[in-house]
Amino acid sequence: MTASLLLALDLVAAIATAGAWIGAAVLAAGLRARTSSAADAPNDRPAPASIHTPPTIRRRSAWLVIALSGIGALGVLAQGLCVALLSAHGWWFVQEKVVFALPLVVLAGVAGGILATPGLLAAARGSRPAPGARDLAALVGAAAAAVAGIVARLVVGYPLELVPALVLLGLVLLSAALAGAIFAGRRGRVVTGLVAFSVLVLVAAIGLAWLGSAALPGALAATHHGAADAPAPPPGGISVTDLRTPADQPGRLAAFDLTAEQQQVTLASGRTVSAWTYGSLPGPELRVTQGDLVEVRLHNADIDEGVTIHWHGYDVPAGEDGVAGVTQDAVLPGDSFTYRFPATDTGTYWYHTHQVSADGVRRGLFGTLVVLPKTGVPEAVDLTVPLHTLGGVVILGDSDVAVARTVAAGESVRLRLVNTDRVPRRFRVDGAPFTVVAADGRDLVGPTPVTGKLLRIAAGGRLDVSLTMPGAGVRLSSNASTTATLSLGPAGAKVPAAAPVEAASGDLDLLDYGTPTGEELPAGEGRVDTTMVLDRNPRFLAGRPAYGYTVNGQVFPHIPSLEVSEGNTVRLTVANRGLETHPMHVHGHRVRVVSRDGTPSTGSPLWLDTFDVQPGEVWVVEFVADNPGVWMDHCHNLDHAAEGMMMALAYRGVTSPFEQGGPHGNRSE
Ligand code: C2O
Ligand code: CU
Fold first, then answer.
1. How far apart are the first and last CA of the chain?
2. What is the CA(599)–ligand 2 centre distance, in A?
3. Rounded distance from Cα 277 to ligand 1 centre (Å)
4. Taking CA atoms, which of 27, 443, 506, 600 is between 20 and 30 Å from 608?
5. What's the CA gap between 493 and 487, in Å, rounded?
C-alpha cells in the first residue's frame, strides 16, 4: 500500500475512534443528566419528563455506550495497524503517531475501559440507573485523547515536539477532570479554575505563534546572519551583491532589453487577455550560444508590485539570481536592473519574475532561455514550446488554438517542452517514436526511442524531445487543453488527431531511462544530510491565520535555512505527507536524483532543478555546494510557495543586505 493511502486510512481510523468515543461520552452524559436531574428534582415539584424514560430504554442506551466504546477500540487497533505499515515508508510519516497519538489513545482507552466498564455494565444490566461521574470522566478523557491524536496529526504535524505534546496532554487530562467534576455535581470553583487555566494555555500558545509569525520583515535575513544560534560569518564574509558577473567578463555579448508591462494581448483565437508581460506573451525567447556573455536589461514600465527576473534552472552567480528581498530589491515602475551571466551550460531553461511570483508568473511574466552548444544541435528544426495557463486559457507555444507547421518528411526535429504552470502537465507526441534527449536542460545519456508513453513534466520542469519527421506528420498535445495543440508535418499531411491525454500509468519514467555512466558526484569536503518533510498545517502567515504549506512544520520565513559550506556534498531527503504534489526547486544548483520511494535511479544520471514529490513519496537527491550565495529552495507550485513552502539554502559566510518588505515591498515568493 502506498504511503498516502495508509495516511488516509490512519486518519479515517483516528476520526472513527474519536467519533465513536465522543458519541459514547455524549450518550452516557445524557443518561446521567436525565437520571441525576430526576434525582435532584425537589419533591414538591413534578419530576421532569425524563424520569419517565423507561428502564429498558436506559439499559439499551447503556449497551449502546458500551458498543460505541468497542467500536472506538477497534479504531485504535486499525490506527496501530496503519502506523505499523506506514513506518516502513519512513519515520516522517509516523513520528507524531508513534511518540504521542497512539500511546495516548491506547492508554486512555485502556484506563477508560478499566474505570468505566463496571459502571457501564451495571447501568446496562439495570442494577444502577446511570453511569457514574468516574465513568463519565473516563469516557470524556478517552474521547479527548482521540481528538488530541487528530490534532497532533493535522495541526501540529511533523515533527511533534515536547511543548505542543505537553499542551495537548494537559488539555486531555483537564477535560477528563472537568467532566468528573461536573458530573459529580462539584461545579463551582474547580470547574471555573480548570476552564480558565485551559483557555489560558491555548491563548498563550496561539498568541506566541502569532507574535512569531508577525515579525516578518527581515526575518529571513536573520536566519542566516545575526540569529543567535547561527555561527557568525567568518571574517571576510561576503554579500550576495559581491557575487555578480563583472561587466568585462570575457565572452561574446548577447544583450537583450526586456520591459515588464501590463498588456492587453490578443491571442490567436481572437480572444483578448489582460496580462503582465516582458513585452510579449510568452516573453521573448532568449536564444544564445555557449560561451556568450548574456546581458539582460530589465525595465519596469508599470507593474506596481515590482518585478525581477529569475533564471529558472540556470546556475548564475548568486547576485544575478533575481529574487526580490534576497539577491536584489524588486524593480519598481520606472526603475531598471541589469543581469549578466556567462552562458556556460547548454540546454532549455526559462525565466520569470521572483517578486510575488505566484501572481506575476500566472499573469505572464515569463519567457524561455535556450543555450545552444557551440556546435549547434543536431536537429534541423528546433522549437521551444512552453505551456502556460492564463485565466483559464491554455497557451501552447504562443497560441491558444491548434497550430500547424510545415516540416519536410525525414527532417529531424527538437521540441523543447517547458511547463510554466503550477501543476504537473502531461504531454503526448503522436505519429512518430521520439527520444527524450534532455531533462531540465541537462542531456540524458543513452536515451532510447519511446512510443506510446506520456511525458509528465513537473511545474517549472523541461524535457527536450527529438524525432524524425514521418510522412504523415506528428502532433504534440497536452492534458491541459484539447484545442491548443501543435502539428508538424509535410504540407498536406494528414496529422494524427489529438488523442486525449490522461492515462497516468503510461508515463515515461526517467528513473530507469537511458544508460547509467557510473559517474559519481564529485567528491565534496564534508557531507550535509538533511530532511524536508512537506505537509499542510494551520499556521500564521505574516500574522494572519492560514492553512499553510509547511516544511518540517514551519512556514516561510521561519523555516531554518539549510546551511552549507562551499564544497559540501549535500544529500536532501524530501518526504511528502500531504495530499498535493510539490515540485521542489533549488536555485543555483541542479540536484542528482538518488532514489524515489526507495527505487534507485538506474538509468542515465538524472539531474533536475525541479523534482516532483507526489503525495506520500520520498525523494533522495544530492548535489555539491559549488555556487556560494543565499538561494531559495521552494515548491514551484508558486501558490504553495506563497503560502509558506519556501526556505533558503545559505552558504556560511554569505550574507544578504536585502529584506522582505521594506520600501520596495520585497516579497521573495
Ligand atoms: Cu522558477 Cu524560485 O523559481
Ligand atoms: Cu507545493
1. 35
2. 22
3. 17
4. 506
5. 10
Ligand 1 atom 1: residue of nearest CA = 312
Q: Is 636 in the pocket of ligand 1 (CB under 6 A)?
A: yes
Does residue 634 have its Cβ closer than 6 Å to ligand 1?
A: yes
CATH of 249-376, one of 2.60.40.420, 1.20.120.450, 1.10.760.10, 1.10.287.110: 2.60.40.420
Confirm whether pTM is higher than 0.85. Answer: yes
Q: Does ligand 1 lie within 6 Å of residue 460's CB atom? A: yes
352 lines ligand 1 (CB under 6 A): yes
Q: Residue 557 corresponds to which cell in the numbers above?
A: 520565513
* pLDDT tens per residue across span 210-263: 777 765 444 454 344 333 344 455 556 899 999 999 999 999 999 999 999 999
Which atom belonging to ligand 1 lies closest to the Cα atom of 641? 2
Ligand positioned closest to the Cα atom of 421:
1
Question: Coil, helix or strand for 614?
Answer: coil
Residues contacting 519, CB < 8 A, separation 6+? 605
Confidence at 42, pLDDT banded by 50, 70, 90: very low
Protein residue with least CA distance to atom 3, ligand 1: 312
Does the CB atom of residue 583 touch ligand 1 within 6 A?
no
For the chain, percent helix, then strand, then coil, each to nearest 5?
Answer: 30, 30, 35
| Whole-number Å distance between alpha carbons of 537 and 523 | 38
Please write the tens of the pLDDT for every residue from 604-620: 999 999 999 999 999 99
The residue written with cell numbers 515508508 in the block is 89
Domain with CATH 2.60.40.420 in the chain: 220-244+518-655, 249-376, 385-508
Alpha helices in 419-544 (DSSP H): none
Please report which confidence band the pLDDT of residue 45 belongs to, taking 50, 70 and 90 as the band edges.
very low
Domain 385-508: CATH architecture, name and number where available: Sandwich (2.60)
